[in-house]
Amino acid sequence: MTGPGLESLITCDLLHAMARDVTYARGYAYAQDGRVQEISMLDGVLSARVEGRENYRVRLFRQGDKLDFDCTCPVGNELRFCKHCVAAGLGWLMAQGTPLGAEAAGTVPGDVALTRIGAFLDGLDAPALRELLLAEARMDGNLRERLLLREAAQDADPAAVGRLRAAIDRATETGGFVDYDDTYAFASRLDDVVDGLAALSDVNPAAVVGLAEHAIRQVEEALNDVDDSSGAVGDVLQGLLELHFQVCMETRPEPVDLARRLFTAELETDYDTFSGAAERYAEVLGEAGLAEYRRLAQDRWDAVPPLGPGERDPDGRYHRWEITRMMEALARADGSLGEQVAVKSRDLSSAHAFLQLAELYREAGEHDAAMEWARRGLDAFPGSPDPRLELFLADELHRRGEHAQAAELAWAGFARGPSLDRYQLLHEHAGRADAWPAWRERALSLLREAAGPVRARQRALGVERMDAHSQLVRVFLWEEDVEAAWREAAEGGCADELWLKLAEMREPTHPADSLQVYLRHVDEVLVSTGDRAYTEAVRVLPRVRDAMQRVGEDFDGYVARLRETHKRRRKLMEMLDRFERRSAAA
Questions:
Q1: Each residue of 446-491: pLDDT tens digit?
Q2: At what angle do helices 511-525 and 531-551 cross, to 10 degrees?
Q3: Is residue 326 within 8 Å of residue 266, measured between CB atoms?
Q4: Which residues contact 319 (CB under 8 A, 6 or more apart)?
Q5: For strand 55-63 and strand 45-51, is the pairing parallel, antiparallel, or unpaired?
Q6: For residue 402, which phi and psi values (nearest 5 degrees)?
Q7: In contact, 13 and 104? CB cutoff 8 Å
């Protein structure tokens, strides 16, 4: 049902006013892209899931005459109105059929405004329209650049190509570091360049090849001074690459020269921009271009020295990683297992290199050779064997029916570094050998044996909060034996996150025990100051409240005491205020 009054409070103008222009623009883009999901309005609270780097939960609700909010993203945790909140509000408006993009006054939807502007422009003759645009271009540098791009993109003359190149240089000039909040505007300027090049491809596609390559180099250089956490500039770079490829497919530039440029770009870029160029551009390059590309790669490859286990490049002049990737692509194109092995075995400096060779042989169905490379990798690094090699070899042993040997190999890894991951691997391999109960007892004994000295040392040092039994707690939680995990935690201590997990799992049946864990955690967190400590303390308060309700204690009184104890911490007081408002609205 619709919340009382909230639907009249949420408007495009209000959302825009609560967010900065850049934040609003990003939220608008999220809403238009369909990233707002699971929108609901219940008891005056708007809830939504917004897809970003992760899935974030947003709540919008009314507090008096104001719109309040919370979001699970890092910006929301800092009590700032984020793009996800904007997107949630706009997504709800869209679901109600409200057009987005209201004018500043908040009364005329954006599409109606554009209709009126269009009608106004229709009434102007060409000279008046020209004067209007020139006047606006004098005042608005971005508009001026867009018009210059449009003008140059319609002219096949070499001078116009030069003007486009200059426009690329201006658009990619950062003028210093471009922080996260300014990246969207910077990427928008670059988008205008891509649009201009795309328009030029209609009248002079051959010129676009070189211009696109220049733009790609300039954008790569600019990325050194841009916080592109949002990926906006990276998206522009991908658009330039796609445009370059499409124009090359259309114009078929001279293949040998193109091969040389692609080879240099792939070898020297810091952003994998032209990664796999020989495969992607194979049709454009043809036999002559591919032959030149291969010649260049082979010349560089011949200078790369081989590396044995643990060895390092004597210097960085070889571009080892890049040229290896090129040679691997060429070997794959030829379909020769021998060539692929020859390329990969040039660098045996890491255990992972042996694993790659073992996997290569396994994919080819040559299991004996695969096992040989895996064993060689383990022998090459006896002090620190790679768990992935051990797992590979264990799988091959199972394939041969040698299950007991596979379990022994898994045990060797567990014994070197007892952990939950190793325990799970031992469980898998010993289970396939039908011998898990015996191996389990042996593994638990080893974990307790390893915990003993740690526990004794912590007690001797007077450590109040021991964590010696963390691994045992993790193991029993994985086995879903919560009571055994609790006993281990009580005996030898465990990490804080494990205590909290145990408390949450046991709260329905042991609320008093859980409450003590929660209260202790809040007290320990608030020994420190700062947003991170305050956020963590407030995050646990709902658990404190639920546990107190179960045991009949006064949660409001606890919060009041918390406020009195920490009353000088203004930011914490603000967070407690927000927590109580959210609780009241829920």
A1: 999 999 999 999 888 888 778 999 999 999 999 999 999 999 999 9
A2: 160
A3: yes
A4: 267, 268, 300
A5: antiparallel
A6: -95, 65
A7: yes
